[in-house]
Design goal:
Number of strands: 9
CATH topology of the largest domain: Alkaline Phosphatase, subunit A
Number of helices: 19
Distance between the termini: 55 Å
Radius of gyration: 26 Å
Largest sheet: 7 strands, mixed
Order of helices and strands: HHHHHHHHEEHHHEHEHEHEEHHHEEHH
Shape: globular
Strand content: 5-15%
Structural class: alpha/beta
């Protein structure tokens, strides 16, 4: 009877954490079977289950309880994270959670529900493994003690070889325990260091109004905008008017082809050759801004209700003066609510550093634009994703050659709304004055312009070059050129056109804040005023921890895939060229108003 109770308790813990297991299985069987991946995952899952149930029958009580406590506590961290963000917890996020443990009391106020789920699972696991058991024969006792530990060590070894990757969908207790072993190894070998304070000198203290804005869009391919292609979609950036000057750096190389890696590096200044150490131990962009005397503002469009996004954590939050979200604004209108919020900050007469993270064109794009912005057809079916910001769920999208035609048209419609109409709205009401806006996207997209099937647009293990190809534009005004220390953006754009990199943005922002350029360069490399001497490439093995090396995908602009000309039907009464270059409908902008619910 006691043995059955233990099995029920452990099964209950596994059931509470089953969502990630189901999601992992679904990803391996739909839309197409991945037999090798399914076999590998099934083997690892089976070993973890064997380890858990074997641990429950270890006859030596201190050993059994110690093992139960270890994996239960480690599992709380993993399950709390996964319940909060509704996604798998990677090893890097585990480290961030450990580093933020000092703010546990604040986290309880925001994530109490998720922590209760993690705590309930841990309690079931602790009791299921730890409760006393019937005696077992001496011949079995050594095996029961050794097997859970050996399986845990084997899992940690596999994750070590894979740089921390490979635990998606495994029981959170074993995942957290393996992560803990890896973390202990990195601490013992001094790979992970404490976050450092700002030490660089400010040689030009900021004066008056003149905001610095990092405007990071989501999933925007640079070759799909009119500033970079005759086939591109109206961006609102070619001739914005009102004295706004556009300095187009053309097509740029992103840091990586996944959102979290790029945003985390843009906020911490990691360099091509030393991004792990710098990202994890050097000051954040917020700390530099505070040291330079700027108010700091974070505008988070994708997330609501204070859920951290793209590896943001409590250590960054302490240097952020305003965190603006749009809890009550429909997903389709949030980028435009952000335009209003940014315009208000640009007009408020205060000197601020603003980091704005948009929704842009993140999947699913079916409903990211209003009906009257459907300029390109055939498009993806509408109505099923109105309240979805982003998801990995590809339900309803087959990935066939025909479906990619509809996808690319929906993508064009989304750009017209979330880029073109966004900038029309922002620049129509904002006074840039002495402000500088650096606009780019986190990564590009593989929209299967070359043909082929599949459903992945970025973060792929064998990426196409388009996944790391993004726009890069600097916006300021003519009056900005005359101020002391001003950057000659026209010359910089000529030097950097179609060869610049995301890695040059962080040192550029520090220069705008007034930090000594030579000191900045010695730590963070060249800024956007200098010709990029590194290969034109992005990193597709960003999480190269534990002895792994990053992998770089070179972008050859002579062989990239440009937007196909034969995807769509022209707007009635217009030529194809007019359809591509069309401005957003004026009546929609007039009707938009100020979205409610900003905070």
């Amino acid at each position: 009877m006691r043995a059955k109770l233990k099995i029920v308790l452990i099964s209950g813990a596994l059931l509470l954490g089953s969502a990630e297991m189901v999601a992992r299985l679904e990803s391996l069987v739909a839309p197409q079977w991945q037999l090798l991946g399914l076999a590998a995952y099934s083997m690892l899952l089976g070993l973890c289950l064997v380890g858990m149930f074997a641990a429950a029958f270890i006859p030596v009580a201190p050993v059994r309880w110690a093992f139960a406590l270890f994996i239960a506590l480690a599992g709380v961290i993993v399950e709390t994270y996964q319940s909060s963000v509704e996604d798998h917890m990677p090893y890097d996020a585990f480290i961030s959670m450990i580093n933020a443990s000092g703010s546990l009391h604040e986290a309880w106020g925001q994530y109490a529900g998720a922590m209760l789920i993690g705590g309930a699972q841990a309690a079931l696991l602790l009791l299921g493994i730890g409760l006393s058991t019937h005696r077992v024969g001496r011949a079995h006792s050594r095996k029961l003690i050794a097997s859970p530990l050996l399986i845990l060590l084997a899992l940690a070894g596999i994750l070590f070889v894979r740089g921390g990757d490979g635990a998606r969908g495994l029981p959170s207790g074993y995942t957290g325990a393996a992560y803990t072993l890896l973390y202990g190894y990195e601490r013992a070998t001094e790979v992970i260091q404490p976050r450092q304070p700002v030490t660089l000198p400010v040689i030009r203290p900021p004066r008056g109004d003149g905001d610095i804005v990092m405007l990071i869009d989501e999933s925007i391919s640079g070759q799909y905008l009119d500033i970079n292609s005759s086939r591109g979609i109206y961006s609102g950036l070619k001739a914005p008017g009102k004295g706004v000057a556009t300095h187009n750096f053309g097509l740029a190389a992103s840091i990586a082809h996944c959102s979290a890696a790029v945003n985390y590096t843009l906020r911490h200044g990691g360099t091509r050759d030393d991004y792990i150490r710098i990202n994890d131990s050097m000051p954040s962009i917020w700390a530099y801004a505070k040291r330079a005397g700027l108010e700091t503002v974070y505008i988070d469009v994708p997330r609501t209700r204070r859920i951290f996004n793209n590896r943001m954590d409590e250590s960054e939050l302490k240097d952020i003066d305003q965190w603006i979200e749009f809890d009550d604004v429909p997903v389709q209108r949030r980028d435009h609510a952000a335009a209003d919020a940014l315009a208000g900050l640009l007009n408020d007469g205060k000197r601020q550093f603003i980091y704005l993270q948009k929704i842009g064109a993140h999947f699913p794009i079916h409903d990211k634009y209003p009906d009257d912005y459907m300029r390109f057809k055939p498009a993806l079916p509408r109505g099923a994703f109105l309240d979805i910001t982003d998801t990995g769920d590809r339900t309803g999208f087959s990935g066939s050659r025909e479906s990619w035609v509809s996808y690319r048209n929906s993508y064009r419609n989304t750009l017209l709304w979330n880029v073109g109409a966004f900038f029309d709205r922002l620049l129509g009401q904002a006074d840039l004055g002495n402000s500088t806006i650096i606009y780019t996207a986190d990564h590009g997209q593989n929209l299967h312009e070359r043909g082929g099937t599949g459903v992945i647009t970025h973060c792929s293990p064998d990426p196409k070059p388009e996944e790391g190809l993004v726009p890069l534009v600097v916006l300021d005004t003519a009056q900005s050129a005359g101020r002391p220390g001003a950057i000659d953006w026209d010359a910089a754009a000529v030097t950097g056109r179609n060869r610049s990199s995301h890695f040059q943005i962080f040192p550029t922002v520090l220069a705008l804040m007034g930090y000594d350029a030579k000191a900045v360069q010695s730590l963070y490399g060249d800024d956007l005023t200098t010709r990029n001497r590194a290969p034109f490439a992005f990193n597709y093995r960003f999480n190269a921890r534990l002895g792994r090396s990053p992998s770089w995908k070179t972008i050859d602009l002579a062989h990239i895939a440009w937007p196909p000309e034969d995807d769509f039907r022209p707007v009635p009464g217009a030529t194809r060229g007019q359809a591509v270059a069309a401005r957003p409908p004026a009546r929609s902008l007039a009707r938009a108003g100020t979205p409610p619910g900003t905070k």
